[in-house]
Fold this sequence. Notes:
Elements: H1 6-15, E1 19-24, E2 35-37, H2 39-47, E3 51-56, E4 70-77, E5 84-90, H3 94-113
Antiparallel strand pairs: 1-2, 1-5, 3-4, 4-5
Helix pairs in contact: 1-2, 1-3
Amino acid sequence: MDEPASTDLLLLACELAVKVESKPQRRDGTDAAAYASSGPTLARRIQAGAQLSASCNEAAVESVLSPAPFHWDVSLQVGAARRTNYRVWLRESPRQLEALWLERQKARELRDSLPHEQRRKKPWGPL
C-alpha cells in the first residue's frame, strides 16, 4: 500500500474542513485581513497546480478562539497571482486523515478489482 502524499492528505483535509481562513499577502509580505474561504475553493487552487507549502499540527489545540482542535497552515501561489496563506481547521488529527485515506484507497482497489457489472452494487462503501 502506498503512503499518502502530503497533497493527498491536504485535499482530504479540504474536504473535511470545519473552517477555512484566507489571508492574501500584501506586496510587502505581510498578511492582509483574514477572509472566510472554503475547502472546495482551496482544493481547486491546489489542483490547478499551485506552488504550495503546507504544515499541520500534530497535537490538538484547545482554545476558545479555535473552531477545531487541528489545523493545516498552507501557503500557495497560483501563476502570477499573489501568495495567499490559508488556515484549514479540522476535527481529525493527521493520523486519522492518513487512516481515512488508506481506507479509501483499499475501497478503490476493491472496486477496481470487481467486474464492471458488479461495480454498481457498492459492496466497498463510500469512496
